[in-house]
Amino acid sequence: MTLDPHPWARELVTLHDHAWQRLVRGVHDRHAPARHPTLATVSPDGLPKARTVVLRAADPSTGRLELHTNLHSAKIADLRVTPVAALHVWDHGSRLQIRLEADVAIATGPEVAAAWARVPEHSRSAYSSSQRPGHPIPGALDYDQQADPAVFAVLSLTIRSMELLHLGADHRRAQFTRASHWAGQWLVP
Ligand SMILES: Cc1cc2nc3c(=O)[nH]c(=O)nc-3n(C[C@H](O)[C@H](O)[C@H](O)COP(=O)(O)O)c2cc1C
User: Fold this and answer.
1) pLDDT tens by residue, the chain, 189 residues
2) Domain ranges within the chain, ordered by starting residue
């Protein structure tokens, strides 16, 4: 008899717990799959926009996540009009797809000073270029590397819904919503 490598996938509660463990691991382990989720927003003209981000905080007790970005980036313009986002992770080791839908709040200035202080020096310009990310430039490297803390933003994602798809010997799919206090519901995969 072969042992089930993923016994946590069999029950709603352990599946949900496992997904959170994998998200939390992404915050602390730069090699974990959840380190680099895909964040999708809706542009003001209604188009879907997706990009890779770094997961900076994950709190299972509140169902919240945090990301860092530049206040001048297009995703901020998207979120100002439509303050919801989807986040996607494919965790190959766990054979688990995590799909989240969240309300997004944007914080900047003194409110995020503590988060800014924790950003390593060498990563700061990635989130705080004073030039607008996506602005056309004459040559590939014709941009300013100066970090400006005034444009550093923290995105706080309050998860509404978490949908999990586990591809084990059997396939299992479940949805967990804040509205149902994360009780969970199996779905046809
Ligand atoms: C591995 C990786 C990690 C990234 N992490 C972030 C991040 O944490 N925050 C961020 O704003 N952009 C991050 N980016 C850049 C984004 O993918 C994107 O190019 C940039 O944010 C501009 O997106 P926008 O124009 O849609 O706002 C990362 C890109 C890669 C490839």
Assistant:
1) 678 999 999 999 999 999 999 999 999 999 999 999 999 999 999 999 999 999 999 999 999 999 999 999 999 999 999 999 999 999 999 999 999 999 999 999 999 999 999 988 888 888 778 889 999 999 999 998 888 899 999 999 999 999 999 999 999 999 999 999 999 999 999
2) 7-127+144-187
CA distances from 78 to 41, 46, 93, 140, 146 (A): 6, 9, 32, 25, 25
Q: How far apart are the CA of 120 and the centre of ligand 1, in A? A: 16
Q: Which of 27, 36, 53 to mutate to test the pocket of ligand 1 (most atoms within 8 A of CB)?
A: 53
CA of 52 to the centre of ligand 1 (A): 5
Amino acid at 128: S
Q: Given the structure tokens 């494919």, which residue do they identify?
A: 90
Query: Quick one: which atom of ligand 1 is closest to the CA of 39?
Result: 17
**Ligand 1 and 88: CB distance under 6 A:** no
Cβ–ligand 1 distance for 73 under 6 Å, the answer yes
Atom 31 of ligand 1 has which residue's CA nearest to it? 52
What residue has token string 């607008």?
132
CATH second-level architecture of 7-127+144-187?
A: Roll (2.30)
CA-based end-to-end distance of the chain: 26
